[in-house]
Amino acid sequence: MPRLISGALRLRRDPRILKLPPYLSLLCILVGAVWLFLLPLQEYSRRTYISENALLPGQVHTYFGGSDQHVFRAYKHEVDALAGKSNAEINTKLAAIAKGLGLKVSRQNFTYTSAGHVYTGENLYAILQAPRGDATEAIVLVAAWKNARGELNRNGVPLLLTLARYFKRWSLWSKDIIFLVTPDSIAGPQAWVDAYHDAHDSARVDSLPLKSGALQGAIAIDYAQENRFESVHIVYDGINGQLPNLDLINSVNNIAGGQMGMGVALQEMWRHNDQYPDRLRTMLRGMLKQGLGLASGPHSSFIPYHVDAVTLQPFGDGWQDEMAMGRVVEGTFRSLNNLLEHLHQSFFFYLLMQRERFVSIGTYLPSAMLVAANFTIMAIALWIKSGQREEGGDKTEDKDGKAEGDESTITTTTTTTTTPGASLAVEREIFLPLGFVTACQFLAFVPLYLFNHAPESLLTPLFTIFALLNTLLPHLISSLITTYYTPTKQQYQLIKCFSLLLLGMFLSSLATLNFSLSLLVGLLASPLTFMRPWPSSPAMRIACTVLLNAIAPTAVLVASAAYWQVGVGEVLREAAFAWDVYGMYSPVVVWCVWWPAWLAGSVIDLGRPVEGRGKVKTA
Amino acid sequence: MRQLLSFSLLSFFSLCFAVLTAAADYHEQLVLRPLPLSALLASFNFRSNTTLSAFEAHNFRFFPRSLGQILQHAGTRELHLRFSLGRWDAESWGARPWNGAREGGTGVELWAWLEADTDEQADHQWLTLTNALSGLFCASLNFIDGTRTTRPVMSFQPEGDHPNATDTNTHLLYGVLPHEVVCTENLTPFLKLLPCKGKAGIASLLDGHKLFDASWQSMAIDVRPVCPPEGEGECVLEIEQTIDMVLDIERSKRPRGNPIPRPLPGHELHCDTSKPYHSGDTCFPADSTANQDWSLSQVFGKTIKGICPLTDPNVPPVCLQVPDSRSVYISNGGLEKKNQDGMSRCFEIEPETTNFELLLPRPEDLPADNLQAGQQVENIVKPETPLLYAERSFTGHGQERGGVQTILRNPSPDKEVEFIYMESLPWFMRIYLHTIQARIEGGPSDHDPLVQEVYYRPAVDRARGTQLEVRMRVPPASTVFLTYDFEKSILRYTEYPPDANRGFDVAAAVITILSPNKNGTRSATYNLRTTSLLCSLPTPDFSMPYNVIIFTSTAIALAFGGMFNIIVRRFVAADEGPEVSVGSLKQKLVVPLRRIFARVKPGPR
Predict the structure, then answer these.
(1) What does A201-253 look like in DSSP terms, one character per residue?
(2) Tell me: the pLDDT tens digits for B464-486?
(3) What is the pLDDT of residue B207?
(4) Same domain as A238, residue A173
(5) Which of A500-514 are b and which e, b meaning 16 or more Cβ less than 10 Å from the residue's Cβ?
(6) Of the residues A221, A443, B306, B484, which has the fewest C-beta atoms closer than 10 A?
(7) Chosen from B93, B284, B292 to mutate, greatest number of chain A CBs within 10 A
(8) What pLDDT digit, counting tens, does each position of B318-370 carry?
(9) Residue A424 has what pLDDT?
(10) Has keyword Transmembrane helix (chain B) (predicted)?
(11) A310 with A455, same domain?
């Protein structure tokens, strides 16, 4: 042990150790990226399993069917007749039907404003009180009048009503069942869930007059398709990349795929052959959705409140009818009804790559952590480096300097130790670097505020102006700094050190909250690790500037908008809506974590350091 | 055992007959009341008395001996025990049966007046009582420990007459178990207390399958001394057993062998034929509010097996509360007697009758398929509006703190309601009393305070729960929100139950509505209970402690090894230390070996 310690101490003084960090950082990035691509392999992923024994999915007979289909057709006629009517009219009609079924019905108004638009509507919900239960627990069935794509939920709403009538006949419910019909898929459920947990702003969202117990789970039906379907698509992404308990997805999977014999798809992979490419694609799509943190359906709003929820979307052309869909919901509700405890057993952090394969956090987290660690390693290395006297580029000079150092310093080590060269310590001038990094961080609030508060008509022009400014900004700042402060190489090192330190810190803590976002930002920001002033090679400087502008947050935004063929304005409006309505924090990460680091990196790249003024100080 | 039982039964019967000739001390009655939304309220009431002198002489006739001995042993003056399940839907069913006096919150509730000289003695007797009752009723009453026991100050008043009681020697204790699931094992001992058990009389209708399939049910036992006015006779000890249940008629009518609500064949559905799209395979259902026809054997699964021979013949055993306009069919041996109010009728059953059946057909004057909500009300007795609606729920989210909100609505247009709101909360819900607030919906309540009196007994961690009694009022036709915040404490990890992630049940709040008496005082007229709540506390991942233990042990072992090594080692300069060479190593080996050889070899003495 003491030998080990002394060995480590000796190693610390080895100048070769300071040459290592860039390679180490590169290795971290490469391993992190490669790690991700190993995950879909058979050996690295696991088969899903039901962890909570109480769920017993697919163990009950489902009886929904028969003459319930006659009722369904009637309700469908009613819903069809309501198409195109106003929200209040629709709710009045639906409330009358629900009251006729003997449910307790109530309504809730909400108004949200975002990007100059006003989103207003009225939620309708009906509570089926558990016949022998107490109002302690509840499960929710949601059907939005319009699904996330804006289509009328033509079969979903009648199915909800028919199921309500059917569930009323059973006496086995141990939890209340809440049937919720919202005018849209995002704002309505959000308003309702917020109000249910008293986390709403009562000026915009009404309080709920009727409540039940703690929510234990929620299923949303998104069934806009007219003809018969083949498979069920499970949408599970929550807000800010939060996910429902894996047991819930597994239960639905088990019931739909196993008991009912229909296909199950995830992440819009309509065909999945369970080979490496398909697994990878499913996983990457899942990660992208998680990273964006957008709400993907009515279920998303429930997840932040620790209410596990999924949306079921029938798709494809097959022979399964509405009753089959109803039986899937029935089976899932019977399973949820069995729950004795809140879902807690299985995983909340996972990546699904096929309906029966997943990787858990322990397996995938190192990937993002390694990418985040590369920044920290570099930051620490730069800190040490900046505290040492600058040595010449030549190796012979290096040796000379070392010898000189040995002579001129009074070292605290005993003469017997054979430590090679305790190099000169240099006083760090940290005022400019600290000030610069702080200013960058504060500057980040400008785009954050602008894009979240501007009306929609201004978003595209604002963004264009900002993107152009963003390209010029590093040049401007760089020339300003060089003119007024004439920073040394050490100061550039320190700027980079602080900037990377912050980035590494933010990203590694973000990795535990939203793995995908952390990894995406980490990979896009990874070139920043290798930025340095290029005083003597303009070609490198230009190349790096081009590279940096290609991976700028604005450029990435434009590129991805072009790839998905949506306007930048629309992306920004969506982001502002997400920020205002359900508190998506991705813009904060982009503007307050990534962008300042990028700005600092760009300025360093353009830097023109003057030769060291660092005072030599004895250590 | 059986011989003994039959003997005791025989002697019991002979005794009972002797008493019957003198004065009937037992009677039973079943009141049936159809409620809106195809529900049926069935109230079973059994009452028997024994004189206090006979009771004290261990001379039991109708009074169940098993219970009587427990009461005597624990020095109980008055006892109230409740087993409840489900919730009363006041919005549709109206006022509660017995004005809420014979019901409890979900689970088991027990309160009793004990005779004891000191508080400690009362606690001791309470322990005896709960443990004995726990055995008698197969319920976990023994879990009513100090943390679940309170001593209400304002909410409960004795129902019986306690002539020689003083404040110092009678103690009221109240305990509640909200998580207790009431089921058949509690019904069987309940029926055993009856003189006719469940064999004859109205008790023969009671069947666990139907009782516990009810939408709401409450079993109550009340024991209280009743004294006649001065000088008119001896005080008696009265035991009243009550079962109230609300049956869902449609659900109860399903045969026991086939309880699954399969979809009806298409042609049996009640459809709204007025819809334009109505056809053979499209049917808008019209069946939900109909279904007011039933018979005893349909809803209870059996008929009344004659009358209990011990019962008072003057009290009709079955009463039905429907308007006189509706016809009711009864089997032979029954006799219908209509009451004057035109809203109820009672049925006498001749003693020889072995099976009594009662059938309420569909209202004749209306076609079955066309029942509208307005017309339907005329076919049943309109439910009375309760004095107060109460609904309680949690506010807030997260595992650190939360709030409780009770919505109290006074439906009366002109009468103010004054009541006592009592909460007995578990100790791990630490309430912030300063946050307690009552506000009227819509308007400020500046003129008159809503909360008039607060009695608060703070919790002591792991020893007793919070007791909060609030005397307050709700002005006419208004809604009052009573809110308070609380903090959730973190339990020790051994204190969590096996189903820790379920949450912890919080007992129902008891609301006692007060009405002015003739002599100016106020007394309880109506009781209601809110639903119970489920409070989720911060719950550890129970595998975590083991992971942590293993991890820290490993870390400590590694660190300690190195540390210890450094601490005990003596550092010397390399040239000061012994020379390490092959020669010295050899020397080290050779010296001990020599020593051993020297021992083995017998040396000179």
Answers:
(1) -TTTBPPPSS--SEEEEEEEE-----S-EEEEEEE---GGG----HHHHHHHH
(2) 999 999 999 898 888 999 999 99
(3) 86
(4) yes
(5) bbbbbebbbebbeeb
(6) A443
(7) B284
(8) 999 988 888 888 888 888 888 888 788 999 888 888 888 999 888 765 544 44
(9) 62
(10) yes
(11) no
Question: Do A335 and A444 reside in the same domain of the chain?
Answer: no
Q: Is B91 on the interface with A (CB under 8 A)?
A: yes
Same domain, A285 and A381: no
Q: Is residue A15 part of a domain?
A: no
**All domains of chain B, ordered by start, with CATH?**
26-257+285-379 (no CATH), 389-535 (2.60.40.740), 544-600 (no CATH)
Which of A134, A167, A308 should be substituted to probe chain B, the one whose Cβ sees the most B Cβ atoms within 10 Å?
Answer: A134
- Cite the DSSP H helix spans in A387-455: 395-408, 431-443, 445-453
- Given a contact cutoff of 8 angstroms between Cβ atoms, the answer to whether A375 and A28 are in contact is no
Residue A32: inside a domain, yes or no?
no
Cβ atoms of A112 and A576 closer than 8 Å: no
> Could you tell me the pTM of the whole model?
0.87
Residue A30 within a domain: no
Residue B580 has pLDDT above 80, yes or no: no
Chain A residues close to B278, C-beta within 8 Å? 74
- Which parts of chain A have pLDDT scores under 50? 392-422, 613-619
Q: For position B584, what pLDDT does the model report?
A: 74
Model confidence at B510, pLDDT cuts 50, 70, 90, reads: very high
Same domain, A539 and A441: yes
pLDDT at B160 (0 to 100): 84
- The stretch B498-505 carries a mean pLDDT of 88
Distance CA A372, CA A524 (A): 11
Which CATH number do you get for residue A334? 3.40.630.10
User: In terms of DSSP bridges, do strands B318-320 and B107-115 run parallel, antiparallel, or are they unpaired?
Assistant: unpaired
Considering the domain architecture, whether residues A339 and A439 belong to the same structural domain is answered as no
pLDDT tens digits, A179-225: 999 999 999 999 999 999 988 888 899 989 888 889 999 999 999 99
pLDDT of residue A394: 39
B484 phi and psi angles, rounded to 5 deg: -155, 155
Farthest CA pair distance, chain A: 99
Q: Indicate the SS3 state at residue B345.
A: strand
Count chain A–chain B contacts defined by CB atoms under 8 A: 140
Residue A411 lies in a domain: no
Answer whether B250 sits within 8 Å of A169, measured CB to CB. yes
Contact between chains at A342 and B250 (C-beta distance less than 8 A): no
Q: What per-residue confidence (pLDDT) applies to A391?
A: 54
The reply to whether ipTM tops 0.90 is: no
Looking at residue A257, what DSSP letter applies?
I
SS3 breakdown of chain A: % helix, strand, coil, rounded to 5?
Answer: 55, 15, 30
In this structure, the answer to whether residues A118 and A265 fall within a common structural domain is yes
C-alpha distances (whole Å) from A201 to each of A204, A574, B304 are: 6, 21, 58
Assess whether A382 and A327 both reside in one domain.
Answer: no
**Distance of alpha carbon A306 from the chain centroid:** 16
The one-letter amino acid code at B47 reads R
Domain boundary among A304, A333, A355: A355
Distance in angstroms (rounded) separating the CA atoms of residues A314 and A320: 9
Q: Which residue of A69, A104, A135 is in closest CB contact with B531?
A: A135
Contact A491, A482 (CB under 8 A): no
Report the sign of the C-alpha dihedral through residues A300, A165, B85, B87, in that order.
positive
Task: Give the count of domains, chain A.
Answer: 2
Asked if B506 and B429 count as a contact pair (C-beta separation under 8 A), the reply is: yes
Token pair, residue A155, equals: 């079969």
Rounded-to-integer distance, Cα A512 and Cα B463, Å: 40
Residue A97 C-alpha, separation from nearest chain B C-alpha, in angstroms: 10
Q: Cβ–Cβ contacts within 10 Å for residue A110, how many?
A: 24
